[in-house]
TrEMBL record:
Species of the source: Enterococcus silesiacus
ABC3 transporter permease C-terminal domain residues: 63-180
Topology with respect to the bilayer: Multi-pass membrane protein
Protein name: ABC3 transporter permease C-terminal domain-containing protein
BP GO annotations: transmembrane transport
């Protein structure tokens, strides 16, 4: 009972540091409860389009677990630093290290008990609320039912039992290996004035330059996907290097400027920051990276959710379409039979016959060659399809003409300004560039380049396509010259009726093409209604996870700033007290404090905005992978997110700076 009373008394006396730690732990319990409840919901297994959502929640749950472990250890390290002097006093008064270990065990058990009880109860309530939000975002109907499983409760409990056991083992090891006099001095001991680290600073600048350069020079969305994590790692290394070493080097340079340095406010701020910047630098770099992660996550997911309808429409230029290597008349007949059997009607039918897709590589601006390696250079890979001139004239109601060796080029993405085009051994003169084609709307950006070549009718025959097929015989992506009709149409009836027709069409055409691999590969039945249902669950899930991750990073930032203010306030209190005793006025102390905390705590958000600005091009390319081509929407939403986040950051600074000022003035 003695140890229990001591543990309770210690927690009560140190409530200024224990209370935020417990709040942080409760918050992470709630986060893990939400992710586990969502991921373990059996209703996701029976809903259309929910497979990807289930994968996302399982991955998101693992990320939150990793975040929980790192964040708990980080905040716990601040807590223990404030406790070391107290533990040293207990040790000198007669408690040996074994007694201290038992006392800390009871402190951990009390903290764990309070955290789990409050966190699990709050998590159960909030998981229901978040479930309703997710249901609204994804549009899932009555089949998506809230389920609270004991498995979720058990997983979260085991996770936090493991985390608190590890923190206790770490604390016990720290106490056992440290002498009593060191425990008394460690909490308030400063570091020796660090030296300028030019090499480390230059490495940081180089890492940032390379990371920014990757983002600014990326030309292909697929290339962005492969280079993104390299750029992120370089920027993280560069950020830590600049904050830890670069800041000290800069402050040393300012110190050498006698005119600037020997002024009361500058002297206090620079000398104080030089003395402690090594420790501050790591914390400030962490805050900056967390702010950047929060801004990137929130702006990207919000943009995807708001722009999802535009994405769906760009993916589906027609409400419904069937693409299969069967005669157009047969395809239309099958569509009419299936639709009539579902008591509906077909309207607005259009059709076109294209050749198969030729996947080629741009060797020069006007020369296209076979792709010899599957992953050679995505930025130069282009898909080319061929269309007879008579088909284009019929669909676009034009009267264009071509000679035997002329073609029209329709660039679905980008522009084509060359006067010739060479594909394999075939070379054509480009008579002109077309501006529109009803079956392939223009795209601002795309994962891969895309061209449609309008060729003379006499060239659109098996002989010409056969020669092309021979040129690309040894390519990774072989050219299949078979004509490929596409039939687009609209359907009457309700949403459920249209969805049932799509399923029936899919089943019927699969039956017709069974036994023929070429026909099965060519088959594609699309429906904007079906795509909308699937995409809404996907982008709704992304938005939901964006909210969870964004709030997590924001709370982590808040706690780190708070602990830093408490830690710095306690350490700086004696120094400012001495300065006041030797003649520094109260007004000058206050001004020096404000100058220091404004510089220290607004620097991370400024660096985060700079990181976000340079990351914008690569983020824009990555979102193209999800179908978002609207760069203006991304720009507007990113600016709004930065303004809102900056306002929240200012509120955090304003509230926590009061804690620092009270500690220093006390």
């Amino acid at each position: 009972m003695l140890y229990l009373r001591l543990a309770y008394s210690n927690i009560k006396k140190n409530r200024t540091v224990y209370f935020p730690f417990c709040l942080a732990a409760i918050f992470t319990v709630v986060l893990n409860m939400i992710m586990q409840v969502m991921g373990n919901n059996q209703g996701l297994e029976h809903l259309r389009g929910a497979e990807s959502l289930k994968v996302m929640f399982n991955l998101g749950g693992k990320i939150i677990m990793i975040f929980t472990v790192v964040f708990t250890f980080y905040t716990h390290s601040f807590l223990m630093k404030r406790r070391k002097k107290e533990l040293g006093v207990y040790n000198i008064l007669g408690m040996d290290k074994k007694n201290l270990t038992v006392m800390m065990l009871f402190e951990n058990l009390i903290t764990l008990f309070v955290t789990l009880i409050i966190g699990l109860v709050t998590g159960a309530i909030f998981s229901k609320l978040m479930f309703l939000i997710l249901k609204r975002l994804t549009g899932f109907g009555a089949d998506f039912v809230y389920e609270f499983s004991l498995a979720s409760l058990g997983q979260v409990t085991l996770l936090f039992l493991g985390i608190f056991m590890l923190t206790f083992v770490y604390d016990a090891w720290e106490v056992r290996k440290t002498k009593p006099i060191e425990l008394l001095g460690q909490a308030s001991s400063g570091e020796k004035e660090p030296k300028s680290k030019w090499l480390f600073s230059l490495v940081g600048i180089a890492c940032l330059a390379v990371g920014y350069g990757i983002s600014l020079t990326i030309s292909s969305p697929v290339e962005a996907l492969t280079q993104f994590f390299i750029a992120v790692i370089l920027v993280i290394i560069g950020t830590y290097s600049i904050f830890i070493a670069g800041s000290i080097t800069l402050l040393k340079l300012l110190k050498k400027n006698k005119t600037f340095y020997y002024r009361p406010n500058n002297f206090i701020s620079i000398s104080s920051m030089i003395f402690r910047m090594k420790q501050n630098g790591a914390g400030l770099a962490t805050i900056s990276i967390l702010c950047t992660m929060a801004l990137v996550t929130i702006s990207s997911t919000v943009c995807l959710y708001i722009g999802q309808e535009k994405i769906i429409q760009s993916r589906n230029p027609f409400e419904n379409s069937v693409e299969v290597a069967l005669p157009v008349a047969q395809t239309k007949q099958v569509i009419n039979e299936v639709v009539k059997g579902q008591n509906s009607a077909v309207k607005g039918t259009k059709y076109v016959t294209l050749s198969g897709n030729l996947v080629t590589m741009k060797q020069e601006t006007d020369v296209f060659v076979p792709v010899k390696e599957a992953f050679s250079n995505y930025s130069k890979i282009v898909g080319i399809r061929f269309l007879a001139l008579s088909e284009y004239n019929r669909l676009e109601d034009t009267t264009l003409t071509l000679t035997e060796n002329e073609v029209y080029v329709y660039p679905v993405t980008g522009n084509y300004e060359e006067k010739r085009i060479k594909i394999g051994s075939e070379e054509f003169a480009v008579k002109g560039t077309l501006e529109q084609f009803v079956f392939a709307p223009k795209e601002e950006d795309a994962v891969l380049g895309s061209l449609i070549l309008v060729v003379p009718d006499e060239r659109a025959d098996p002989t010409f396509y056969g020669e092309l097929a021979e040129d690309f015989n040894e390519a990774v992506f072989k050219f299949v010259p078979a004509p490929l009709p596409i039939v687009s149409f609209e359907l009457a009836g309700s949403l459920d009726q249209r969805m049932n027709i799509t399923k029936a069409l899919q089943a019927r055409f699969q039956q017709l093409t069974s036994g023929d691999e070429e026909l099965q590969r060519s088959l594609s039945v699309t429906s904007i209604d079906q795509d909308r249902e699937e995409m809404r669950s996907l982008y709704g899930g992304f938005f939901f996870l964006g909210i969870v991750f964004g709030v997590s990073f924001l709370v982590a930032t808040t706690l780190i700033i708070y602990y830093k203010q408490v830690s710095e306030g306690s350490d700086d209190r004696d120094r400012f007290m001495i300065m006041q005793k030797v003649g520094l006025s109260h007004k000058e102390v206050k001004k020096a404090i404000q100058q220091q905390i404004i510089l220290v705590f607004f620097l991370p958000i400024i660096v985060a905005v700079i990181h976000l600005s340079f990351a914008f091009p690569i983020i824009k390319k990555l979102l193209v992978m999800f179908g978002l081509m609207n760069a203006n929407l991304l720009t507007i939403i990113t600016i709004i997110c930065v303004l809102i986040f900056s306002l929240g950051y200012f509120v955090i600074y304003w509230r926590t700076s009061k804690v620092y000022y009270q500690l220093v003035e006390r």
